[in-house]
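[step 3/7] fold_predict: job queued, chain A
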Amino acid sequence: MPDKLEELIETINQEESDKVTCVIADGSMGWAIRVAKKMGITSAAYLPASVAILASFLSFRKLIDDGIVTTMVRTYII
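[step 4/7] structure written:
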């Protein structure tokens, strides 16, 4: 996939009109950000997850510190 994205950007940028000046990619597609960096193009990653999920990610440390969530891992055999 990274090679195809790089090829697409190069093809677009060879035209006289519009150029790719920024790559905006889903946070799970880090390879797209790496392609942009390699090509010297500005990039940004975003997380399309809901606000509730983002708030959870940002709150994990406090939840652990407050003892609400434990860091102990348990294995269950079904």
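[step 5/7] annotate
The first strand starts at residue 22 and ends at 26.
The chain has a mean pLDDT of 86.
exit 0
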